[in-house]
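pls design
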């Protein structure tokens, strides 16, 4: 696992720092402390610059170096969101063609997954392995933007015939361009682990299913209500335990507390697909890699929690600091 934190002088510098990190960080080049072990570093397939706008096309090797994971990003000012607003729009794809545009890549998700930024210095946290990367950026004193791009950890199939070969998940704060980082919309500004509404069939996250189609992931409907089975159609899934698709209040994240001894219980964040009758989930894809739900009671951003030999950093969801708005990311 590779990890880096620091301060970027602005959004363009953040993008430059990320390009260097994901393609050449020492812990990706030498993941086992042994240079004889092949690299987990991501390959930059193409980088384009047009004024302040940039695009980057990446391929992840997988942790066993037997996969090709395609993730592409369009980055630049977002005038529709304000003169000081920038957007980081990430799209997944299934292959790469150097002659195709970002939205024309093979198997591309046509819906935006946007991490909003502002034109000012930003503290950042980068996490990566050969399968996925995570970005956290402190946009203002009270607003955090996030992106998850790469594979989730799929559940073991009951037979080889049911193997899930390309469990690509792309998630961010917003499901569309033109929304400002300062937005306090309950429906439109969320996080990659608790995604937002965009349209009736898409959200600010999506997963490429075993059936070779993109499934929108959104816990919040157009009314801003965390009740997946009420106002999000069955083509959209959600993430548990943040979603309330089962409608059972006792299991909502707003009601989850620390253990009796005061320690925190970390729970996998599971990606699932809504059922046809809006009564829950019918297809469970897997869990976000190195990401866990943690109770928000007596919680604060940048707290560190150690479980066994693993250290997790706690972050809040966008501008929210309620009991159900925190996540822990493995360092």
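designed seq:
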């Amino acid at each position: 696992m590779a990890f880096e934190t620091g301060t970027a002088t602005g959004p363009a510098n953040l993008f430059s720092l990320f390009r260097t990190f994901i393609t050449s960080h020492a812990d990706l080049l030498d993941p086992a402390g042994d240079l004889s072990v092949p690299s987990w570093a991501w390959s930059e397939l193409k980088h384009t610059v047009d004024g302040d706008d940039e695009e980057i096309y990446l391929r992840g090797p997988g942790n066993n170096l037997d996969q090709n994971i395609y993730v592409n990003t369009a980055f630049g000012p977002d005038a529709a969101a304000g003169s000081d607003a920038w957007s980081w729009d990430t799209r997944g794809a299934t292959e790469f063609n150097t002659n195709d545009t970002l939205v024309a890549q093979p198997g591309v998700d046509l819906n935006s997954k946007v991490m909003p930024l502002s034109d000012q210095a930003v503290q950042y946290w980068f996490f990566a392995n050969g399968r996925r990367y995570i970005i956290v950026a402190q946009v203002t004193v009270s607003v955090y933007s996030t992106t998850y791009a790469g594979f989730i950890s799929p559940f073991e199939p009951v037979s080889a015939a049911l193997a899930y070969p390309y469990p690509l998940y792309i998630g961010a704060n917003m499901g569309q361009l033109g929304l400002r980082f300062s937005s306090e919309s309950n429906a439109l500004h969320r996080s990659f682990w608790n995604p937002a509404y965009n349209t009736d069939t898409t959200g600010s996250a999506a997963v490429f299913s075993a059936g070779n189609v993109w499934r929108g992931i959104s816990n919040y409907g157009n009314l801003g209500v965390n009740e997946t089975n009420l106002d999000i159609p069955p083509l959209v899934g959600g993430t548990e335990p943040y979603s309330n698709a089962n409608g059972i209040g006792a299991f909502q994240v707003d009601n989850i507390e620390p253990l009796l001894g005061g320690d925190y219980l970390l729970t996998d964040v599971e990606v699932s697909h809504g059922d046809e009758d809006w009564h829950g989930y019918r297809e469970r894809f897997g869990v976000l890699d190195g990401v866990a739900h943690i109770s928000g009671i007596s919680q604060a951003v940048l707290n560190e929690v150690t479980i066994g030999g693993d250290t997790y950093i706690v972050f809040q969801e966008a501008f929210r600091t309620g009991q159900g708005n925190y996540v822990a990311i493995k360092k």
